[in-house]
Write a structure and sequence with these properties.
CATH topology of the largest domain: Metallo-beta-lactamase, Chain A
Helix content: 25-40%
Number of helices: 10
Mean pLDDT: 89
CATH superfamily of the largest domain: Ribonuclease Z/Hydroxyacylglutathione hydrolase-like
InterPro entries: Metallo-B-lactamas, RibonucZ/Hydroxyglut_hydro, Sec-metab_biosynth-thioest
Pfam families: Lactamase_B (PF00753)
Low-confidence stretches: 339-360
Strand order of the largest sheet: 1-2-3-4-5-6-7
Largest sheet: 7 strands, mixed
CATH class of the largest domain: Alpha Beta
Radius of gyration: 21 Å
CATH architecture of the largest domain: 4-Layer Sandwich
Order of helices and strands: EEEEHEHHEHHHEEEEHEEHHHEE
Organism: Nocardiopsis flavescens
Distance between the termini: 23 Å
Protein name: Glyoxylase, beta-lactamase superfamily II
Number of strands: 14
């Protein structure tokens, strides 16, 4: 497929197998193969499409393997451009599938919901965010991402060693983009497979959508995860292998840029609230500056922007910088004065915001 890079030997038994995402501006997902005597282990599988499957099978053939020989696949997170081909891989091989327990739970939840239930929940959430009814109707009528085809076999918690004989590949739990996002540290090779957690130019979508949002703090988790990755042994010299864009060295500096971007965004939101008074999620989101004008964004982008804004509002609540008012059916937020709260930017470690920069 035009625009998809070739298979590449990265040395030391590591290969990149770019798998296209047809019709998506991201273009492709880097699936990585680590070879061993008992068959290769994949990191992610790619999007569920015939062209994607053909690319994965051809990539494996290019490195001297058949898909039937795949030993297993570690899934960095549950999103469809990373897990879409798990069903076909399982049907074609005896490969195990491993994922962090938190994203296994999300996968089970998604597969337990029928389409009508998912649409009803989506309508409830967007209505509570203050979305106009026309936008809600358009969003419900739009395309949906399918849940992962299958539930993984193996839970891979933080620090667990991957079943890859002769190599020291370990899970690094990096929640934020999803509750169970994993990076994989190849300690004996000086490499870090970063999934969507640390990307060299863009930032992943960090979303939350009240009121059906639980008590989590995905942005707070994400910032903590960035610091954890930057603190890995030898982090300054680690070669980072992301799922998108290009390779880079040393995650700490990039993690600091990403954190600074989110701190700057948090400051913009608090400034808006101070000048606005009680505001719905729609009012806050539509009042912020995005790379594209709000009026020129589609309803799906509005939804993703609102989810990311909600994640910033949750962190502001946790820091005592904002408070939720209104009702559960239509919450609003106000800025508050909190003398003991951390200063905005105190965790800074950025470029302008853009909703849904990577997959949902």
């Amino acid at each position: 497929m035009p625009g998809t890079p070739p298979v590449e030997d990265l040395g030391d038994g590591v290969w990149s197998l770019p798998v296209p995402i047809p019709g998506n501006p991201l273009g492709f997902t880097y699936v990585y193969a680590l070879t061993g005597g008992d068959g290769p282990v994949l990191i992610d599988t790619g999007w569920d499409h015939d062209d994607s499957w053909d690319a994965l099978v051809a990539g494996l053939a290019r490195i001297g393997h058949r898909v039937e020989e795949v030993r297993g696949a570690v899934l960095t997170h549950f999103h469809p451009d990373h897990t879409g081909l798990t069903g076909r891989l399982r049907a074609s091989s005896d490969a195990w599938l491993a994922m962090h327990p938190a994203d296994i739970a999300v996968t089970e939840h998604l597969l337990a919901r029928d389409e009508d239930t998912r649409l009803r929940e989506l309508a409830d959430r967007t209505r509570a965010a203050g979305f106009p009814e026309d936008d809600i109707a358009e969003l419900l009528a739009g395309p949906r991402h399918a849940p992962p085809p299958v539930v993984p076999d193996l839970a891979l918690p933080d620090g667990a060693r991957v079943d890859l004989p002769g190599r020291d590949l370990r899970a690094v739990w990096t929640p934020g983009h999803t509750p169970g996002h994993l990076c994989l540290h190849l300690a004996d090779g000086g490499r870090l497979f970063t999934g969507d957690h640390v990307l060299p130019r863009i930032t992943p979508h960090i979303g939350l959508f009240p009121p059906a949002d639980g008590e989590g703090d995905p942005l707070g988790d994400y910032l903590s995860s960035q610091r954890a990755v930057g603190a890995l042994p030898g982090a300054d010299a680690l070669l980072c292998l992301p799922a998108h864009e290009h390779r880079f060295t040393g995650p700490a500096a990039r993690a600091a840029e990403i954190a600074r971007h989110h701190e700057d965004r948090l400051g913009e939101i608090i400034t808006l609230l101070r000048g606005h008074g009680p505001a719905t999620l729609w009012e806050v989101s539509s009042g912020l500056a995005w790379r594209r004008p709000w009026t020129g964004m589609g309803v799906r982008s509005h939804h993703m922007a609102a989810a990311e804004t909600a994640a910033h509002l949750r962190l502001a609540e946790r820091r005592g910088l904002a408070a939720r008012t209104g009702t559960r059916g239509l919450p609003r937020w106000v800025a508050v004065t909190a003398p003991n709260a951390p200063r905005i930017g105190s965790l800074a470690t950025g470029p302008g915001a853009d909703p849904g920069t990577t997959d949902e």
